[in-house]
Amino acid sequence: AIDKSPPAVVKTTRLSSCGTGVAQQRLANALSQRKLLLVSSPAAFKSTMRPILLKGHERSITCVVYNRDGDLIFTAAKDGRPTLWLSEDGQRVGTYEVHNGAVWHLDVSWDSKLLVSGSADMHAKIWDVEAGTELATFEHTGPVRSCHFDESGRRFLAMCDAFGGLDQNRPPLVTIYENEPMWGELGSWRRAAQFRLPHPEAGEVKCQLVRWLPMGKQILCAFEDGMMKIMDSLSFSELSVIEAHDNKIQSLSFNFHQTFVLSASADQTAKMWDLETWECVKTYKSDRPLNAAVFSPNKEHILVGGGQDAMSVTTTSGRQGKFDTQFFHLAYPDDGEFGRVKGHFGPINALAISPDGKSFCSGAEDGYIRLHHFDADYLDMKDPVPEDEPTAE
């Protein structure tokens, strides 16, 4: 069941919690040392966004997800405890107990009834979001790196890594599970299909993550060499291959209307792809390896995050490590970065933005989730529009 821990475990930096007079000023000064500034051109963002610091995990954050209504935030970390928070004030509702290894990925169904999590303990689990109970467990042959619901919320895919050498007969796999019968009991699931992925021990390129494509007829696979492959969800036959990046792909996310997908890579770029033609619409160049990228649902912006490799974090300052979230204009201008949000002390591993576009979360190697509610300056900001070209007479 969900652990109903006292609200005191949630660390916030809201000024509404201040006292009055001298005490208020002292607390305000202390909080100012932890504030996040959106750094951009001098004319923009004169005010400061103060984050709500979500402290509930003991190890590095691996995944952050909003539900469809935007009132709940689900987080995963290497401590093995998926956690539920309220997005309005960052209050921790509880944890889902428990995996016996790092939780690499999670996803929530469209109706917010089910949560799926994939872990290094070689299990994927289905949880009842409201009750916090475990509904089903699926054993795999290796660590589960990726799990994703389709639009129905009653079918999901899970990807596990290889475990051991070729002689162990534990290859990397993609498995599709579905509710049996469809829309039946939430605890009744069956394995609908299973497909084998390339095996790194055989000299083949490792698959990094998998996602359903819209309508659930195809599966998008991202690889360590920067390639993306579109696979048929029934036969797992290869339909198309895209040379997307020069290094491993770390993140895939869709826009609100599911007409574009955004890929983020360790080659320091994020790219937007048209889901109909699979042409690269735009490339966003950063100055650090990227681990996450998301679309804004109501503005023509994208957010990207990453930073220096976690192994070297202790030898570098936060400024040099580049652990901030970057904001880019979606289409215009070409050098579209216009702002940054600072605050983490390790590389950003996960980003999520609320469905209404009024807040976003970042989770990092430092073990913290920072919940940012956008201020009025950002929400009221007008995007630049190129002037119309004069028509030739």
Short description:
The protein has 393 residues and is mainly beta.
Mean pLDDT: 85
List the strand order in the largest sheet: 1-26-25-24-23
- How much strand? 35-45%
Characterize the main sheet: 5 strands, antiparallel
Explain what this protein looks like in three dimensions.
This protein is mainly β and 393 residues long. It is 5% helix and 41% strand. The protein has 3 helices and 29 strands. A 5-stranded antiparallel beta sheet has the order 1-26-25-24-23, with no helix packed on it. It is globular, with a radius of gyration of 21 Å. The N and C termini lie far apart (73 Å). The N terminus is likely disordered.
Architecture blueprint of SSEs:
Layout: H1 21-32, E1 38-39, E2 52-54, E3 61-66, E4 72-77, E5 83-86, E6 92-95, E7 103-108, E8 114-119, E9 123-128, E10 134-139, E11 144-149, E12 155-160, E13 173-179, E14 189-196, E15 207-212, E16 218-223, E17 227-232, E18 238-243, E19 249-254, E20 260-265, E21 269-274, E22 280-285, E23 290-295, E24 301-306, H2 318-321, E25 325-329, E26 337-341, E27 348-353, E28 359-364, E29 369-373, H3 376-379
Antiparallel strand pairs: 1-26, 2-29, 3-4, 4-5, 5-6, 7-8, 8-9, 9-10, 11-12, 12-13, 13-14, 15-16, 16-17, 17-18, 19-20, 20-21, 21-22, 23-24, 24-25, 25-26, 27-28, 28-29
List its traits.
393 residues, 5-stranded antiparallel beta sheet, 4-stranded antiparallel beta sheet, globular, disordered N terminus
